[in-house]
Amino acid sequence: xxxxxxxxxxxxxxxxxxxxxxxxxxxxxxxxxxxxxxxxxxxxxxxxxxxxxxxxxxxxxxxxxxxxxxxxxxxxxxxxxxxxxxxxxxxxxxxxxxxxxxxxxxxxxxxxxxxxxxxxxxxxxxxxxxxxxxxxxxxxxxxxxxxxxxxxxxxxxxxxxxxxxxxxxxxxxxxxxxxxxxxxxxxxxxxxxxxxxxxxxxxxxxxxxxxxxxxxxxxxxxxxxxxxxxxxxxxxxxxxxxxxxxxxxxxxxxxxxxxxxxxxxxxxxxxxxxxxxxxxxxxxxxxxxxxxxxxxxxxxxxxxxxxxxxxxx
Length: 313
Prior knowledge:
Elements: E1 4-8, H1 14-31, H2 42-54, E2 60-67, E3 70-81, E4 90-100, H3 103-119, E5 124-130, H4 134-142, E6 146-155, E7 166-168, H5 174-191, H6 202-213, E8 222-226, E9 229-238, E10 250-258, H7 264-277, E11 282-288, H8 292-300, E12 304-312
Helix pairs in contact: 1-2, 5-6
């Protein structure tokens, strides 16, 4: 019989899951090779992640699809609290790891992932999908998912220099960073208030995070000095990717704020320089889909969408 079944995977299924996740990583690589380059120790790293998350069944679920005794699909699902600067919201995240042999398998896996996060108390469900995975994207849209965030990428310019108006931040700049970030948070809130409503203590929490970020050797905190003082900042930082991929060559711009769009260009130039010094080859910038001005600025700077987060509530 070729009946399709899905179930929660256990530690005993790791041997079946690893090949599926490596196949999923290869699919992502074909869609965006600059973002999803393979890690030389991919198999061991994927196995380690599985063993770690399978030991936390209350927070993570790995759904395994089988047909005729053969493993034909897998999807990850997890429960994550909102970052401290936003209102308390438990989100279910699925799809950053997904392999499905055919549309029937995809539908069954997503059914299982959604059930896990809703039953776990999630208020919203977020799923990841490569932009060029057109069939999967169409299926998610039909299920009621709508775009939430563009993950936009471009190559790092190895010849970039840091403009004179851009410099490393110091603790004296923290009030300006908090002020600028409040405006950026308002942009996100307008884009999707369900997901990005700031916490009442957001200013103090963000200041604490930036104070800590100034001490971290894995990132740079840069500010733009305008005629009236600091009017923009950017934090080029490491990227979290599936363990099957080499994240060392990818940097992320998430904390990025400017008083006006004219300051974006020197900030991005400074970010390119900082990442190039670290040997990073690709940069991704995170942009809410409901913030067209920010997307236009990133488009003008050569960024193109490689990955999407989609929301369902």
